Amino acid sequence: MKKVPVVITGIGVINALGRNKDEYWQNLVDGKSGVRLATDHEFVGMEGVYLGEVEDEWVAEGLPEGADTGGVRMNALALVAAKQALEDSGLDLSTIADKEFGMVVGQCQATAGPTVGTYLPFHEATDKVANHFGLTGPRVLISTACAAGGNAVGTGRDMLWDGTADIVLAGGVDDLQKGSHLGFELLGAISDEPTAPYSRSDGLSLGEGAAFLVLETKASAEARGAKILAEVAGYGLSADAYHATAPDPTGKGPLRAVRRALVEADLTPEDVSYVNGHGTGTPTNDRMERKAMRSFFGERVREVPMSATKAALGHSLGASGAIEAVTCVMAIQNGVVPPTVNFHGEAPEDYDFIPHKGRAADVQITLSNNYAFGGNNCSLVLAKPGRLNRAEETTTDRKILVTGLGVVSGFGLGVDAWREGVAKGESAIGKITSFDAAKYGTEFGVEPFPLGAKPLAAASLWRHLAGYGRQALAATTFAFQDAGLKTNGPGRENVGLIFATGYGPIETAVELMIGMQSPEGASALSFANATVNAAAGAVCQALTLRGPTTTIASGGASALIALDSALQLLKTGHADRLVLLAIDDFCEAVMMERSKHDQLSAEGVVRPYDQDRSGTVLGSAAVAILLEAEEIVEARGGKAYAQVGGVAHGGVSHQQDAATAERVLKNLLSRSGTDAAEIGLVAGSGTGADRDDAELAGLSSVFGPELNLTAPKSLTGECEAASGGINMLTAILAVAEGVVPATANLTNPSSQYPFAHVTEPKTGADVNKAIATATTPSAAFGAALFTSV
C-alpha cells in the first residue's frame, strides 16, 4: 500500500438550501434555514412536521442530459450532485477510459418498491450514477447509517492508497421517507419545531440531499493542472459497542475516531481550525458531543469554532457526512466558518457554536464528525492545499492472515458442520416450511438454520435481536472461538468489524413498513433493528469490539468488497484484528422480489455451469472470517488457516459482465504478483442461471480449460452477500486443509467454456493458492486470493 497525498478536485451538492455549491454556501453563511413545514405529499396531513426538502424543480433542472432515474428521487438526487462534482473537477471522462474510476456512496435508506413490503436494490442509485458516467471501476455502497457519507470519503481515500482505484467519486445520498420520519418519532427524537442543535436540543428535523467529491492523488491532480480544493488529511472509525440507538454518554467512541483521524494526519488538537459537528439537535447526541469535544480539546474547546450544518438543512442521514465534507471544503476555500442557525438563547462562553451567521476565519484544518445508530463513529480531517508537509510516499506491507472461521449455514452451526456437509456432497436445499412458496414458482430454498436455546450474548441483548442479528452474532462468536480467542473482554479498541450484506435485515424492515400502516403497528425496537448496520452494532456490543467498523451493502459482491475495506484498515494500522461478517436473510419478501427478476428452479436442483441449468434456489447463511496482522498472530502464539493474497473488484457498466470479470481477475493476479497457472482452485459464483456464462467467459479468458472450478451455490443456494463469504470460506479451507466441495448436479458442462470442474468432494487436495469470486449482477464483480502459510 502506498500512502500518498490524496486531494479533492471537485465538489457537488444539492440540499434544502441550494441547488449547487455556491447557492448552498451563500445561504448557509447568511444564516438562512431550509427547514420548514413539510410540503411533500407524503407528509401533508401530518401536523407540525418540519423538513429540509429539496425543491422539485432544482432536481429536474440539475439532472444530466439523458439520465435514467427510474422515476426514483434517490437516484435523481445522486445524479445531480455527481454531475456537478465531475464538472467541477474539470475531468474529461472520454480521455480516462483506461483509468480505474471508482465510486463510493454512503446511503442509509433503501427505496420502497411499488408495493408495500418491497424495496428496490440498495445499490441502485450507485449503479445509476456509475452507468450514466461510464465509471467502470470499483463500486462500494456504505450503509453505516448517519455516518455513511463521511465513511465513504475516507474509504475513497483508502482505495487510492491501495491502488484499487485511480480516481474516486465519493459522497452520499438520502431522500425524505415517511417511514424513517415515523421511526424517529417512535424513538421520541423528532422536534416539534425546526431543529436547534447545541441550544434547545429537543429533537431533530429530517432533511434530504446528495453530495459528491472527486478524489485523486495529488500527483495526478497536479499532472493534469487541476485546481486542488483541499487535501484528505486523515480519517478515523470506531464503534461505541454500547447501544443500538443511543450514543455512549461518555463520548469515548467518538474520541477514538477523532484521535485516529488526527494521528493519521500527523496533526494535534491545536492544529484544528474548525469543527463541523454531528449536531443532530437531540439531547443525548448534543450532550455527548459536547463532552467528547471538551475531552479532546481541553480548555481550547472555547477557542475552536464549531457548528452544526444540520440546523440549516435537517438531518439527511447517509448524505449528511458528505454534505458536511463539502461544507468543510467550502470553509477552507472561502475563509469563512459557517454558523449554527436557529440558535436559541445566549451563546455559551465555553463553546464557540458560531450562532446565526458565518464569520471570516483562517481555516487551515477542518474536522467533521458523524455518529450513527449501531454505535458507528467517523471523523474526517481535511486540510487547506499546501498546509501539510508530509512525505510524498511511504509504503506498508503488512501480511494479513485468516485465523478463525465461523459459519451458520444449511449444514448447521460452525465450521465443523460445514466440513461434514461438504464431505457428504449433499445439498442443503430443502422444502420451504415458513411460508407458502409455491406462488413464486418454486417450493425450495435454504431457510435460516435454527439456533439453540442458549443465548450467545447477554440475555437482555439477545432478547432484543431478531433472527438475522442472532445469526450474525452466532457466526462471529464461532469465528472467535475457532481462533482461540475470548468472545468478549477489555482491550478491544483496535478490534473491529466489517459487515457485508445485500438486503440487510429485510424481514424486520418489511414488518416495520407494514406495521406503520396502522397507528400501533410498529415499535421503536423494530425501527432500530431495521437499519442495515443494526446487526453489526449488536455484534460489536456483544463482543465489545470498539475498533473500526463499517457496513458494505453492494449486493452479492458485498463480502469481497468488504474484504478490500478490511485489508485497507489493517494495512494502514487502523486495526490489528478485524472480523469480516457476511450475512443475508431469507424470507418471503426476498423470494417475492427475487422471483420477479431471477430464474428460480422449480425442482429445487441447482446446476451451475451446466448447459441444462434451470435456475437458482434462494438461501440464507452467515459467515465470519477473523483477520489478523501477522505480527499480532505471532505475538499470541496463534495459528493461521491462510494468508490473504489480495482482492480486486470492479463495476459493471451496460451489461459488460464478462469484460468486468476478466478485468478484475487480471487485476487481482497482477497486484498479487501471481501467475494464472499457480491458481489451484476457483470457488465461483455460478448460481444455476443464465448469467453464469458471463463469469465463465471471464474465467476462460484468464485461466483456460485446466482450471479447477467449483460452485458452492449448488449446495447452499444463492445467499447473496453470504455467498461471497461462503466462497471465501471454500477457498480458505482448500489451501489450509485441501477440503474442496463439489459442484453438485453438474452433468452437462458448458462446451463453450470447458474447465476441470470439481464434481466429487475432495479432502487432502493439493491447493496452494485459491480464488473466491462474488457477483452483483449488472453491478459489480469481485475476486479474492488466498494462499497457504
Automatic annotation (TrEMBL):
<keyword id="KW-0808">Transferase</keyword>
<protein>
    <submittedName>
        <fullName>Beta-ketoacyl synthase N-terminal-like domain-containing protein</fullName>
    </submittedName>
</protein>
<comment type="similarity">
    <text>Belongs to the thiolase-like superfamily. Beta-ketoacyl-ACP synthases family.</text>
</comment>
<feature type="domain" description="Ketosynthase family 3 (KS3)">
    <location>
        <begin position="3"/>
        <end position="384"/>
    </location>
</feature>
<dbReference type="InterPro" id="IPR014030">
    <property type="entry name" value="Ketoacyl_synth_N"/>
</dbReference>
<dbReference type="InterPro" id="IPR020841">
    <property type="entry name" value="PKS_Beta-ketoAc_synthase_dom"/>
</dbReference>
<dbReference type="Pfam" id="PF00109">
    <property type="entry name" value="ketoacyl-synt"/>
</dbReference>
<feature type="domain" description="Ketosynthase family 3 (KS3)">
    <location>
        <begin position="397"/>
        <end position="789"/>
    </location>
</feature>
<dbReference type="InterPro" id="IPR016039">
    <property type="entry name" value="Thiolase-like"/>
</dbReference>
<dbReference type="InterPro" id="IPR000794">
    <property type="entry name" value="Beta-ketoacyl_synthase"/>
</dbReference>
<dbReference type="Pfam" id="PF02801">
    <property type="entry name" value="Ketoacyl-synt_C"/>
</dbReference>
<dbReference type="InterPro" id="IPR014031">
    <property type="entry name" value="Ketoacyl_synth_C"/>
</dbReference>
